[in-house]
């Protein structure tokens, strides 16, 4: 079928809106008319150079889609045409990790989500000039009027709810909230510091408040983001550039953090997070560092560091829980969202990179 998509043809090029030919859904797949798509920094990572033989571009990106199912391929039983859905990551469903209820650690996660293609190497989109496009970014490529997703990446939602608000739940919000509530298991009375107050970090702040954490510290370089973090539930907000940051965190918590969560991927920030932990404290990482991370001696006191992928969440159960909390006023993640028209996608990217907008959502 013919549809409209935002195509990224080179790492240093803008997105271009093009007519593309999209194949019909195959076995286990669904065709979704996209209503909205959040823009995440993981989408922008699609601009990075890749090794020969693993090229992604040209591609249709987007992995926080929400829309309406138009048709389904063979074998699909969980959704049907007309269902309103939020799209999340894909997983195989039969490896050891999936069967253990940990689909974000699926043994095929990379192949299914980060290559822009199906596991067999195929893709389902062709540009008007005949160029084959990667169109399986997180099994959806939702920067388009239509996308083909997998049944396992789809979460059905109430058709009365606004899809342009729900779209970011599929990755960024899920990652931040899940890391706090599931991955780190934050409980009432605990102390938590969140490093970085973007969409993932602020979702973590909201989740820490939801969990009943006694001290919630937001750490960020930007004063406006620290102010918003305080409005969303942080009890303290600190400047990440302060040379006394670790001492301040230890003073606020009376000896060290129970939990820390880093969204920056900056090695020096991660090291500060470890140093601020109390005995048996835990640091969760949501972003990988591009250089070797050297961890300080405090790990010897029972402290742990772990990488949390997609917040350790199972989207089909966790996203409905977040929606319920939002409806009841306990999880106002919508305060981070700024809508953009689909043809303003390059403006949305620029505002996301500059920090002007925390969570751009393309309304399609």
TrEMBL record:
A molecular function annotated in GO for this UniProt entry is: zinc ion binding
Matching InterPro entries, A to Z? ADH-like_C, ADH-like_N, ADH_Zn_CS, ER, GroES-like_sf, NAD(P)-bd_dom_sf
Keyword annotations: Metal-binding, Oxidoreductase, Zinc
- SMART domains reported in the protein's UniProt record: PKS_ER
Q: Where is the Enoyl reductase (ER) domain?
A: 11-362
In the UniProt record, the signal sequence range is none
Q: Which PANTHER family match?
A: NAD-DEPENDENT ALCOHOL DEHYDROGENASE, S-NITROSOMYCOTHIOL REDUCTASE MSCR
**Organism, scientific name:** Streptomyces boluensis
Q: Does the keyword Disulfide bond apply?
A: no
The family assignment reads:
Belongs to the zinc-containing alcohol dehydrogenase family.
Q: Which top-rank group of organisms is this from? A: Bacteria
Q: Does the keyword Oxidoreductase apply?
A: yes
The record's annotation in Pfam families points to:
ADH_N, ADH_zinc_N
Q: What is this protein called?
A: Alcohol dehydrogenase catalytic domain-containing protein
Q: What is the required cofactor set for this protein?
A: Zn(2+)
**Alphabetized SUPFAM superfamilies for the sequence:** GroES-like, NAD(P)-binding Rossmann-fold domains
């Amino acid at each position: 079928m013919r549809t409209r998509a935002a195509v990224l043809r080179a790492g240093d090029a803008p997105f271009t809106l093009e007519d593309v030919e999209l194949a019909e859904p195959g076995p286990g797949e669904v065709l979704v008319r996209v209503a909205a798509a959040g823009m995440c920094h993981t989408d922008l990572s699609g601009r990075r150079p890749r090794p020969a033989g693993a090229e992604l571009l040209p591609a249709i990106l987007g992995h926080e889609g929400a829309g309406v199912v138009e048709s389904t391929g063979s074998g699909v039983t969980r959704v049907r045409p007309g269902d309103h859905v939020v799209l999340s990551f894909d997983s195989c469903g039969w490896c050891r990790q999936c069967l253990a209820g940990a689909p974000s650690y699926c043994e095929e996660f990379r192949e299914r989500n980060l290559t822009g293609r199906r596991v067999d190497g195929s893709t389902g989109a062709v540009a008007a000039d005949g160029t084959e496009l990667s169109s399986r970014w997180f099994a959806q490529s939702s920067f388009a009027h239509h996308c083909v997703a997998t049944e396992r990446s789809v979460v059905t939602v109430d058709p009365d709810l606004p899809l342009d608000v729900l779209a970011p739940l599929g990755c960024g919000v899920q990652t931040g909230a899940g890391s706090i509530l599931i991955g780190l298991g934050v409980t009432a009375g605990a102390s938590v510091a969140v490093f970085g107050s973007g969409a993932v970090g602020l979702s973590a702040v909201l989740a820490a408040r939801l969990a009943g954490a006694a001290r919630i510290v937001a750490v960020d370089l930007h004063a406006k983001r620290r102010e918003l973090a305080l409005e969303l539930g942080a009890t303290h907000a600190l400047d990440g550039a302060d040379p006394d940051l670790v001492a301040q965190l230890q003073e606020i918590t009376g000896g060290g953090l129970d939990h820390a969560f880093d969204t920056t991927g900056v090695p020096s920030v991660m090291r500060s997070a470890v140093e601020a932990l109390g005995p048996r404290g835990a640091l969760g990482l949501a972003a990988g560092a591009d250089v070797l991370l050297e961890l300080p001696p405090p790990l010897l006191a029972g402290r742990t560091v772990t990488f949390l992928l997609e917040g350790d969440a199972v989207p089909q159960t966790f996203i409905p829980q977040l929606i319920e909390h939002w409806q009841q006023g306990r999880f106002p993640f919508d305060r981070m969202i700024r809508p953009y028209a689909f043809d303003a996608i390059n403006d949305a990217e620029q505002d996301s990179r500059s920090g002007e907008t925390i969570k751009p959502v393309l309304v399609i």
